[in-house]
Design brief:
Blueprint (H helix, E strand, L loop, with lengths): L3 E6 L2 E6 L10 H16 L5 E6 L3 E3 L10 H13 L4 E5 L2 E3 L1 H8 L2 E4 L4 E3 L13 H4 L5 H10 L2 E3 H6 L5 E2 L5 H14 L2 H34 L2 H11 L9
Length: 246
Amino acid sequence: MTLATTVHERGITTLTLDSPANRNALSAGLVGELTEALVRCAADTAVRAVVLTHTGTTFCAGADLTAPPEPAAFVALMRAIVALPKPVVARVTGHVRAGGLGLLGACDISAAGPDATFALTESRLGLAPAVISLPLLPRLDPRAATRYYLTGERFDAAEAARIGLITLAAGPEEVDKALEPVLDGLRRASPQGLKASKELVTATVLKSFDSHAEDLIARSAALFASDDAREGMTAFLERRDPPWVL
């Protein structure tokens, strides 16, 4: 079953997360398909930029707890987005949770509408936003990162733009309108100019991957194997509170 679809128009390749049955959760299959699609985009001279979007009311619900990817595979996907020699633009009209925020953090430009909500819910499951810190912490407001990492609170697109998670918060049915000048600008830029410019603005993020990926992959694996995480994920799947909720 195809979990991500690809459409190409005037130099822009759109990759659509298309697994609504699990709210576009990051399964091993979806991570693999996206990684392969990015490899193709990197090699295709007809691709000037990539748009990452979704079907349904959820952009990405985070890790698929029933068929999760290996942490190293998810890290490789996020790094592939950051290191792609072409801009990656996120178009978000739905909810984003946990690992889905890692995808957004890896993208170069992003726009979200008023129906989008965001939350780093890992702490409520006995986990932590470990590997997604690689693209997020270099870009997020530090105080906001502390708050939302610790509390798991939900916030809207305006707050996501304020703290640096996304680029643009658009009005109702205006996400595509907000992205029109962005995509027009990318179409007017030379491939060499885009590549060289992206290298400048992603250098700090790539250093984060190169310096901390191995440690955070190990930390993520240890957390997922813990008793707290097993209880947290079981409670989530059973739609009940874990025992630590006061």
